[in-house]
């Protein structure tokens, strides 16, 4: 016998994510994982760590040349990250 109030697993997960206010954090972690796609394999291989905290993306780089190149294209990178996320997740980028 089937119950009248059944929900799919996807619906239940979406409700849980909304109730726990996890959607933004999930998008932030997705951007951290998509860093390779955004910059390309060579640039991503020179990146040690990437994370987002309070709207600021922090990237630790092994190459000063890459750091200078990313500094010049910082605004473009912010726009591409936010477009990929579908909302304004990143307001600033700090390269170390």
Structural write-up:
With 96 residues, the chain is of the alpha+beta class. It has one domain: GMP Synthetase, Chain A, domain 3 (2-Layer Sandwich). Helix content is 55%, strand content 18%. It has a three-stranded mixed sheet with strand order 1-2-3. The longest helix is centred in the C-terminal third of the chain and has 12 residues, at 74-85. The model has no long low-confidence stretch (mean pLDDT 88).
How many independent structural domains? 1
Give the CATH level 1 class.
Alpha Beta
Main beta-sheet strand count, sense and barrel state:
3 strands, mixed
Distance between the termini: 60 Å
In the CATH hierarchy, the architecture is 2-Layer Sandwich
Low-pLDDT segments, ≥5 res: none
Helix- and strand-based class?
alpha+beta
Query: Strands across the major sheet, in which order?
Result: 1-2-3
Task: Please tell me the overall pLDDT.
Answer: 88
Number of helices: 6
Describe the global form: elongated
Instruction: List how many beta strands DSSP finds.
Output: 3
Helix content: 55-70%
CATH topology tier name: GMP Synthetase, Chain A, domain 3
> What share of the residues does DSSP label as strand, in percent?
15-25%
Order of helices and strands: HHHHEEHHE
Radius of gyration using CA atoms only: 18 Å
